[in-house]
Amino acid sequence: MSKRIFHVLLIVFQLAAFSYYAFLRIDNAGIVHEPRAFGDTADYFRNADLPVFSSEFWTSPRPPVTALFWKLAGADPERIFDLQLYFSILCWGVLAITVVAVVRNKLLKPFAFALVLAFSLSRDVYMWDPFLGSESIGLSFMALFLASAIWLLTGWSWWNAACLVFTALALALTRDTYAYLLLMVAAVSFVVFLPGRYRWHAAGVSLALVLIFAFSSKLAGVALRPYDAILMNTALRIYPSEEYTEYFRHHGMPVDDRLVQLARNPQPGEKFAVYLSLRRDKDQEDYRQWAHGVGRTEYLKFLWFFKAVTFQSVFTETPSASFYPDVYYYTATGYHPIITDARISELLYPTRFGLVFFFGANLFAAFVAALAWRDRKALWLAPLLMVLLAYPQAVLVWAADVNDVARHSVPHNVLFRLGAWLLIFFIADTLLADLPARFFKRKESTA
Question: Which domain holds residue 242?
């Protein structure tokens, strides 16, 4: 078979596979009864009603990119569902094409294309399309960011760098936790490329990611999102613990013993009673002033003081939520899995042996990282970071979000599992890169 014929067949396969993939997702969306609203939905709708160029739009209680998309859909739930669905299909298609483009082995290309698309048929990816929140748009931009990163790692160009920075900005302004991921990526990338000839290019991109982090953090601070997190952590993590309460009491936090008792003995249906009291009651003004002022700094000091708890709790307190979250509760009415075979689903997106898979993949990635550094495999950096940064992201989610760890852990779990697959493909591609060339050369010589 000549290279030209193989190339034509590959294009035909990709078109057919993507068409079937899009059909599966669109057809599956048709059985959803209606989009699913949740606690944060009203905030996004209020933001979508604001003028884009108003300061309130950019400093509302939720990051602005999701509301911007909802504006494009006229803030209509059904149209938002459609927009999120088609945007997700497009973004995962771009990522699949990107992976195919950088895989050199011709025989691996169709498998790589099919794998990326099949991976996005996992429940934790496509279930968010009818969910009225930031999850679907965030995962879609994550796919675009990853595609941009892969292109930049295969060859420097200002266009590739600009695409990476743009998608990074969109990602950070979709969910605040993505900004911290960008900060981690910036730090690692700067160190990795410091000895090479692209050190200044890497430094420039890393600086851009740091500035995006700073900008996102500034907007979050003006919108009082860290302040709200302090209130929630006080109500659901600090007050229920005598040790934590006394720590903060000795560090200047006004403590209401009545709310402490309520937090430790909550009545059915009053999970958020303490949080609402801290946020609204007049007699909590001193506490709110503390939270507005030094609260964030004191909370960070608290996390470091109890660092053993901070770094271990994702394994001892919330292992399932942090590393194999069950988010079925958030599916819309009428949800039906696209991949119905449980064994195939588990193979694509492993969850059954969550911690075993997590530790195994991290050990494997750590070993491969040494080989990648030795052999200067720049392309391997993307999947390696997807795997190795899952733990710090899990710690970040645990520390920041005491209320809904499982839902907010989905992004790093998706990255982690996709990173493991991409790492396997990139290693296999390196091992098999020369085989097709020898095959085609032998065929051409005998023709």
Answer: 225-293
Is 379 strand, coil or helix?
Answer: helix
* Residues 394, 347 share a domain: yes
One domain, residues 407 and 264: no
pLDDT at 4: 81
Q: Which residues of the chain have a pLDDT value below 70?
A: 1, 434-447
- pLDDT attached to residue 146: 98
**DSSP percent split of the chain into helix, strand, coil, nearest 5:** 75, 0, 25
Q: For the residues of 296-307, what is the DSSP string, one character each? A: HHHHHHHHHHTH
Instruction: Tell me the pTM.
Output: 0.93
Structural contact between residues 395 and 300, judged by C-beta atoms closer than 8 angstroms:
no
Please name the amino acid found at residue 372: A
Return the structure tokens found at 137: 């748009």
**Both 371 and 236 in a single domain?**
no
Q: CB under 8 Å, gap of 24 or more: what pairs does 116-121 form?
A: 116/92, 116/418, 117/17, 117/18, 117/21, 117/92, 117/93, 118/339, 118/348, 119/348, 119/349, 119/417, 119/418, 119/421, 120/88, 120/92, 121/21, 121/24, 121/25, 121/338, 121/339, 121/348
Q: Into how many domains does the chain fold? A: 2
What is the pLDDT, as a whole number, of residue 114? 97
Bridge partners, 131 (sequence order): 36
pLDDT of residue 138: 97
Q: 3-state DSSP call for residue 46?
A: helix
Q: pLDDT value at position 439?
A: 53
Q: Six-digit token pair at 50?
A: 């604001």
**Which residues are 36's β-sheet partners?**
131
Please write down the long-range contacts of 267-272, taking CB distance under 8 Å and 24 or more positions apart. Answer: 271/236, 272/235
